[in-house]
User: Fold this.
Amino acid sequence: MATKIILPESELPTHWYNIVPDLPAPPPPVLHPGTHQPVGPDDLAPLFPMDLILQEVATDRFIEIPEEVREVYRLWRPTPLYRAHGLERLIGGPARIYYKYEGVSPVGSHKPNTAVPQAYYNAKAGVKKLATETGAGQWGSALAFACALFGLECEVYMVRASYDQKPYRRAIIETYGATIHPSPSDRTQYGRKVLAETPDTPGSLGIAISEAVEVAATNDDVKYALGSVLNHVLLHQTVIGEEAIKQMAMVEETPDVIIGCTGGGSNFSGLMLPFAREKLAGRIDPVMRAVEPAAAPSLTRGSYQFDFGDTGQMTPLVKMYTLGHPFVPEPIHAGGLRYHGMAPLVSHLQELGVIESVALHQTETFEKAVQFARVEGIIPGPEPTHAVAEAMLEAERAKEAGEEKVILFNLSGHGHFDMTAYQAHLGGELVDYEHPQQAIDAAMAKVPVVAE
Ligand SMILES: Cc1ncc(COP(=O)(O)O)c(C=O)c1O
Assistant:
């Protein structure tokens, strides 16, 4: 009855997994916002290096992880799979609970799994600087770390609400040598426009993305990096699931339920996609469930429509579950989940019925995360408190039904730099926000109508 199920370095995956060729229906194309025609690689070239653009549209099932990237991955990968003995005792069986722990990376989350290859491919293409946004600060830390390794400059636009809540994430980003600005900022045309219209805005990921995209689009030697949503980001994260498949096999277990929190969909996909391959091939049949906050419920209450990835309408149009690109979420503590859309691939999988989704309130997720910390030791980041809570709820339901379920969830990061959120919870100050239907309707009214 192992507690840590550990893969040796020699078992580090050599390839990322691309689900596209295995899908029963192809994903919808990405559209040019002006013509509503599918974009080609050249349309994306101002923002991304060609290697990443080719991965974005790749049709190969497996893509080799460059040795330079694997060398960096070995700093913390393979990550441990834990059997949650303490949690099982707390709940009182019969569910067997496992979690893949991505918090052992240098910055404390799954984000370097894609930051490292993104920095690598940009450096290889001769790019000098990357611009990006960050919500919780995890992605900004990860890209700053990866840029330091590959000798790139890095400029981070951090959502103002998180910038004010998380001074130590800022310090981490600066320690790795990157520069950081609260968003909206007065450094971009779009940021100045937002500040003029709403000077007190807490900011949003959609606004920060617009600022970083503007910096990349208007400077020849700067490219843009995104920490979630896009196909190539989800692709890089599949190292998580490839390792987890081997680790579950080591203890002769097959998951009945696979759970991950979803902001843009990357950590959930990283764990889920390799299992989805097995499910689509008919070898296993787990329920695969995304967990989102009730304050930003794109998968559970959004519409499956073409929309912009950013608030300033600078990105192409992608078909996804969306709450509307003008969405400015309430400042819940899971900053990385405050996004209006969902990865097109995750959205497509929900449309196909391969995955399902639920929404939870933050008071409940923090309550469960505190119980988890007291028996498992790890303090989850605010985002994965959603995965922890849903896994615990699932185990409680299994207990009531007397079912021997095997539950696997992704613990995408630790919360060591998010302790203001725990302080607020312990002090009874956390409030729940139900995103109002009126706000969804108003934002959706601004989404362009695309003839399909
Ligand atoms: C630890 C952690 N988990 C999850 C997320 C949500 O992003 P994604 O849905 O892309 O995994 C974030 C985003 O910042 C994060 O920092």
